[in-house]
Amino acid sequence: MHNGNHWPGDARLQRRGALKHETAIKTSAMAAKPIVTSKQREEVVRGVPTEVVCTAFSNSILVVVTQYGKMGTLVSVDPSTITNDISKPSLTTKVLLGTDEPLSHVCAKNLVTFVSQEAGNKPVLLAIALKDKSMEGIKALQELIRSCQVW
Known about the structure:
- The chain is an alpha+beta fold.
- The chain contains 3 helices and 6 strands; from the N terminus they run αβββββαβα.
- The chain has helices at residues 10-31, 102-118, 135-146; strands at 37-45, 48-56, 61-66, 73-80, 90-97, 124-129.
- Strand 2 (48-56) and strand 3 form a beta hairpin.
- It starts with 9 loop residues before the first helix and ends in a 5-residue tail after the last helix.
- The model is unreliable at 15-28 (pLDDT under 50).
């Protein structure tokens, strides 16, 4: 029976309430600076509607380039400093999802080499779904990616 004193579990409930309040304070303080930064652009590139989304994470950059409205092939573009010149690491590409064809690797390197370099040689995860894979199209897409710079 309750005799007017606190129930044994009251202290635990009070601590939980304090923790919830503390968590709320931390969350609202963190809300001032977003955890990830993202920019998105839509533009017609060589007659094809194109969307680009660039998102910066602490350890990598995600770039989505689509002319189909879907992510398409996912390619990891990873700088490796195995070479003697650390200022210009070679880039390794690996298809993580989708069709692994040589053109995917070529497009990936041409589209996001500058992203990795300008971001301090961070790895880039590139999602590409392109109708226009011409060199002129790739150059136009580079400029669209640059306009979404978050690195």
